[in-house]
Write a structure and sequence with these properties.
The structure is a homodimer of 311-residue chains. With 311 residues, chain A is an alpha/beta fold. Chain A has eight helices and ten strands. In chain A, helix 5 crosses helix 6 and helix 7 runs antiparallel to helix 8.
């Protein structure tokens, strides 16, 4: 059985031309955007995409637009060659890896420059007034809470880069992991509100054997921190179990989760129990909710979530 | 010679299917978005589009997303049947008129509702948190000055509806009038920054015989107000003439313009002399600038502009 070598494309127009050529031959295209350093969670997104389309494009691009200057852009892990080997190992392979050098390069007029002048929170992409990138897609309500509070440029960075990628790759289907639940909801809403003709699929969160939600950032955890971080997933399973047994008061469920994580040495960023559609906090479980957590173990910020559907 | 009857399409998917069908036959598509009540200025955009593409789509849609609740959405003029007759009168006609009823209707979850709760400036589109439209495209620097000051929701409304229309119509080329200079620049920048594969063309401003810049809102001027409003174009021609004769100090040029309009009874919203690319105000004419004016005559707000290229 031959191993499929993905075509590596770095140029925007070349990527678009490939998609258009495939479409003109009647093929359907699935798309999985990633920041690389691929793990089993990413691979499951690709497998999901292949259920829906004939061809698959995976993008690998660490997007500066979604990192604030005080965040971990410079330490985000990468391993392109390792990523390509992992993609080749998939049963159906991957057709294209889109790996642009700089999505914000627009010719002589579009240099990416950093601007600390105003001391306000800026992304790693802020340029001076003039010719730098300045267009952002805002999904104004869904981006407010949870990660939107602690990472103020994150969701506008994600929505904007996904809009760019959709305009370059022109996929029929795009798959996002439900581990980044708020991100998935935001992309769904952006696609609906801006009439992108892309079917957005949320793929189930994947956990390592010990329960830790798979994430590229897990590589930064020391063995001890990893053990402590298991409190996140453990507290989520316990919350779900309690809810199934009849505990519907969210303040109680939140309290248990917070205690569990803090006892293990984690620093809570947020613990929220929110409506699955609107992401608004609820006081009592009536409709489907999702318990969302962000917590620090050392310098590593981890997120996780668990849906609790209406009984 | 037969008169071409445009196909009227109201449904998003039908519009998209038409474009894809044409493209699969190798045709190119030009697009002119309008709010209807068409005048010679609009028709010149269509003629411009036809120089570049084989087929032309004109959208007619009064977009609530770009009107604040205290603006003139309810009195914006419309005459769809008259518009269609004008389109039929063009030498090459128009292939499609896209005339949706509500671009913000997304099924049961997407009802347009008004929200005055917070008393902040909202568009006529603001819904409650939940399922109403909430995605906006922000071109953050270009939208700041001039009309962005006096009409705080305007440019995000325009950029967002144009993004939607581009995703529905999927044109190769789109034509915008330079009478709305800041709008044109914003759309150019949005297309560049979000990688829309659309060629944006700015078409020269058209004036009536008496010099008044063509605008759908001119219909609201009384005969006397129209005479007074000629001060706008007159002052622009005088400013350009003075600049050609060597006056490069912008405060002087602005002063003359302001005097001329106020003497005629106009209420100035703004007079700015800005760089053609960045739209930032300049103190002295060195590179290409554009003189931009917004002024009220009675209840009618008129805008106009004139480029002064570098000598």
């Amino acid at each position: 059985m031959s191993i499929k070598e993905p075509k590596i494309i770095r140029n925007k127009q070349e990527m678009r031309n490939w998609s258009r050529s495939m479409r003109s031959q009647g093929k359907t295209i699935g798309f999985v955007p990633t920041m690389g350093y691929l793990h089993q969670g990413h691979l499951s997104l690709i497998t999901e995409s292949q259920k829906h389309t004939q061809l698959t494009v995976v993008s690998i691009y660490v997007n500066p637009g979604q990192f604030a200057v005080n965040e971990d852009l410079s330490t985000y892990p990468s391993d392109l060659l390792g990523d390509i080997e992992k993609l080749k190992s998939l049963p159906n392979g991957v057709d294209v890896v889109f790996n642009p050098q700089n999505l914000y390069h627009y010719g002589e007029f579009g240099v990416m420059r950093r601007n600390f002048k105003d001391e306000k929170i800026v992304s790693c992409l802020e340029g001076e007034v003039g010719f730098g990138h300045e267009t952002w897609v805002r999904v104004e309500n869904l981006e407010k809470g949870m990660c939107g509070m602690s990472r103020p440029v994150f969701f506008r960075g994600v929505a904007s880069v996904v809009a760019k990628l959709f305009n370059i790759v022109e996929p029929d289907v795009a798959v996002f992991g439900k581990k980044d639940y708020q991100q998935w909801k935001i992309i769904q809403r952006m696609v609906r509100d801006l009439d992108f003709d892309v079917k957005v699929i949320g793929s189930e969160l994947m956990r390592d054997e010990d329960g830790l939600a798979m994430s590229s950032r897990n590589v930064h955890l020391s063995p001890q921190q990893r053990k402590q971080a298991l409190s996140i997933s453990r507290s989520l399973f316990e919350a779900k179990s309690a809810a199934k047994k009849g505990e519907t008061i969210c303040s109680e469920l939140r309290r248990s989760v917070i205690e569990c994580i803090e006892f293990a040495g984690g620093k809570i960023d947020y613990v929220e129990i929110v409506d699955q559609e609107s992401l608004e906090a609820v006081e009592e479980i009536k409709n489907g909710v999702v318990v969302c957590i962000a917590a620090w173990f050392g310098k590593v910020r981890l997120i996780d979530n668990m849906e609790i559907d209406a009984s």
